[in-house]
Amino acid sequence: MDLDVTMDMVVFQLNGDDNDLLIAAAPAQAQDSLRQAWRQARQERPVQPSDVTRVHSTWQPSHADYAFLAETFTEAEHTYVFDRPEGDDWTDALEHARKVMAEVDGVEREEGGRERIVRAERDGEWLPILHSTSAPLPLSASLPLVEGKLYVGFAKVTITPQGRIGMSHLLRSSLEAMSDEEYLELAGEACDNLKRGLSIRMLPDEEHGNLAVMERNGPCAGSAIMLPDFHEQAAGLVGADRLIVGLVSPDHLFIAGEGSGRAEEIREAVLTSPDTGSELVPCLLRVDADAMDVIAERPR
Fold first, then answer.
1. Which residue of 2, 94, 119, 137 has the fewest C-beta atoms within 10 A of its own C-beta?
2. CA torsion 8→4→16→165, rounded to 10°?
3. How big is the chain by its Cα radius of gyration, in Å?
4. pLDDT tens-digit readout, 132-154
5. Which region holds residue 16: left if phi is over 0, alpha if psi is between -120 and 50, else beta?
6. Residue 271 predicted with pLDDT over 90
């Protein structure tokens, strides 16, 4: 990956096709970097502004370039990665961008990492993704479920022929650019995809109460906790309004009534979980009709 953040890398998507891209670069601090990039792109191919359906840049445009975007690409979506600093001092902004890009580069250098991301972007389906920090990657979109403890983002997810999971996370800048209607459409699609393949195994015990195990034919069963009807459905299964929910891993979700004998089993499963392969720290939740709280986590 090119880590020269002093350049504004600009990608012009043509006709809604992710495989039809023009890429150009201009000095990031230039007030007309987008205009310069467009001039370079047109030297490569004489396309028309009306062909452009998305413009993605490393840096937030200047006021002059925002005007250029609005006048030139009237129907195109625009996203960017890093906020443009106020004033002329770019020292802190460039240092922050270098650190972020170095972290992303490390993830992509993992064996097969970049290939899995590309495959997910091309073939994947949107799913909600749980994590225990504000974002699994510095550029990813993230929304709090339990502030400071548990968050949800969105990613296109696929399974490779080798059986490995590929993910392409929704960028924070893309989420911020969405209208309320666009966000609700994305979240609805992700939740509908998640519901497909979900199944529940009931493990009844007359003495200790019911234990529900939520599984999925595919990844991310644990993300079911953010479904709008999760509490209602789970409470009906275990016969209790106040629930203890164990996120043992992103793919394993245990549910029991608070105060039941099974609740302690779930706590033990969470605290001793061997899962270390995700951004989700195994945790124990208390869930009722009004709230969700993290009451225990496996030691990090």
1. 2
2. -150
3. 22
4. 875 455 677 889 999 889 999 99
5. left
6. yes
Q: Which residues contact 27 (CB under 8 A, 6 or more apart)?
A: 6, 7, 8, 33, 36
Higher-pLDDT residue of 199 and 17 is: 199
- Span 263-274, mean pLDDT? 93
What one-letter code names the amino acid at 137?
A: L
Q: Which helix (H) or strand (E) holds 156?
A: strand 150-159
Alpha helices in the chain (DSSP H): 33-44, 63-72, 91-109, 113-123, 172-177, 180-195, 230-238, 261-271
Predicted structure pTM score: 0.64
DSSP 66: H
In whole angstroms, give the CA distance from residue 297 to residue 122. Answer: 35
Q: Which of 113-117, 232-236, 279-283 has the lowest mean pLDDT?
A: 113-117
Q: Whats the size of the chain, residue-wise?
A: 300
Q: Is residue 162 helix, strand or coil?
A: coil
